[in-house]
Backbone:
């Protein structure tokens, strides 16, 4: 399996001092920063957009290479994922992870949808993200099965293949929710078919749930409240890492 990547979710940081919180989290041993972007449409909550990402980027060193330390893993919980790729690239995003449900449903909504710029289908969107020089991720909500990903992951064209799949282990929208173990068979199925794929899990991860997720085959671990709410965040980060590496 690919290496462990621990990505604290800054949704649980203090938004009034995001830059300092991000820098400190990196010092505490984080590999990536997981940046939750919510638009109030795709999910019933709003966080922040590209201008804020551009400001916090200045507090975290750019990764020396793609997938490296300091990677900005932007989890786009937004209804129009294609529309914001360029903006986020300019702001310093490294990995743009869109929700399959958003790309798919907006493409299916109207017959002319595929030809308008803000709407697309998942394959074209992965290609577009790569063309913009970013890593591409595809996220699935709890209700969405992994079969929809086969076409992407097995595309003959590498530009259409995502660099990471995110399996949500809560309904997206809020931090601090209860982990849904019911989503782990999706992780297992992906790991069995794709030994080298980066598989991220997000929602309710912490010392009490990490072993299940790691055993299922997840290697990119998001944790918001478990890291930011800890007495000793560095200890939690290293515990998460050792669970994945054991
Ligand atoms: C939820 C977000 C998560 C959230 C996780 O919609 O995608 O990244 O911050 O928070 P915890 O780890 O507290 O469940
Ligand atoms: Zn997230």
Residues:
């Amino acid at each position: 399996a690919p290496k462990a990547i621990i990505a604290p979710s800054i949704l649980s940081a203090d938004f009034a001092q995001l830059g300092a919180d991000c820098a400190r989290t990196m010092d505490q041993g984080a590999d990536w920063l997981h940046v939750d972007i919510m638009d109030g449409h795709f999910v019933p909550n709003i966080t922040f957009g590209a201008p804020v990402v551009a400001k916090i980027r200045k507090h975290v060193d750019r990764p020396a290479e793609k997938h490296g330390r300091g990677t900005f893993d932007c989890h786009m919980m937004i209804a129009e994922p294609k529309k914001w790729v360029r903006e986020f690239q300019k702001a310093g995003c490294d990995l743009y992870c869109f929700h399959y449900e958003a790309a798919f449903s907006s493409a299916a909504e109207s017959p002319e949808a595929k030809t308008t710029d803000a709407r697309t289908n998942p394959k074209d969107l992965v290609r577009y993200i790569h063309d913009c020089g970013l890593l591409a991720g595809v996220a699935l909500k709890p209700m969405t099965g992994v079969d929809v990903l086969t076409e992407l992951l097995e595309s003959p064209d590498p530009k259409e293949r995502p660099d990471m799949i995110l399996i949500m282990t809560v309904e997206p929208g809020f931090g601090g929710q209860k982990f849904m173990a019911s989503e782990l068979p999706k992780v297992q199925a992906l790991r069995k078919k794709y030994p080298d794929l980066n598989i991220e899990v997000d929602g309710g991860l912490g010392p009490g749930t990490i072993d299940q997720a790691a055993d299922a085959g997840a290697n990119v671990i998001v944790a918001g409240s478990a890291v930011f709410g800890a007495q000793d965040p560095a200890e939690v980060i290293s515990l998460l890492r050792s669970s994945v590496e054991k």
User: Anything to note?
Assistant: Residues 106-118 have pLDDT under 50 and may be disordered. The chain has ten helices and eight strands. The beta strands are 5-8, 32-38, 71-77, 95-99, 135-140, 164-168, 198-202, 220-223. The pocket of D-xylitol-5-phosphate (ligand 1) is lined by residues 9, 11-12, 34, 36, 75, 170, 172-177, 202-205, 222-226 (CB under 6 Å).
